[in-house]
Amino acid sequence: MLERAFAEAVERSEGEDEVIGRLLDAAYEQFCRMGIRRSTMEDVARRAGMSRITAYRRIATKDALVEQVVRREFRRYFDQFLLDIRQAKTVGDRVVLGFVSSLQAIRRNPLIGGLMATEPEMVVPSLINDGGRTQATVQRFVAGQLRAEQQAGNVSDELNVELVAEMMTRVSTSFLISPSQVIDLDDDEQLREVARKFLVPMLEPVKS
Question: DNA-binding residues per UniProt (predicted)?
């Protein structure tokens, strides 16, 4: 589920109509308040002010509803990510800002961050037990950003962007699924220091 949500968010799938928008808004509020496991399609339909039959006609299953809500949150995250990194003047600054903003955007998101804290079984398996598909989707997004930096002449043509994107993605994912006992993930300055010391140096091609 999470892998499809990531992929479709990155690929900018088509917009929603008004009824589906109401359903997704209601589902977001319901899931944030009660969690996914304790919520039903009937709860969401009631919160959206529509009949259960209408809700099922537009989105056939609860799993499909969850996927669409999560996808919309990731799409908003990717939009904000691209806006955030525009503030940075150098590629190193963009790596630092991107690392911190991505971690905090997900951890502080009322739905996704809340699920990771209260219903991790709904999220974590999708990150680690899906044959690497979710990480591969994020890796492709990061690699695309690095490739754009390469084409702009901001990093060396010799940089292996696929490998660097893989390592950056795995570092970020590890912090999301396994909170650190050394680094305070609520301290943005500590996260910036991690990025400056360990991620930015990855932008230099390895000398043979």
Answer: 40-59
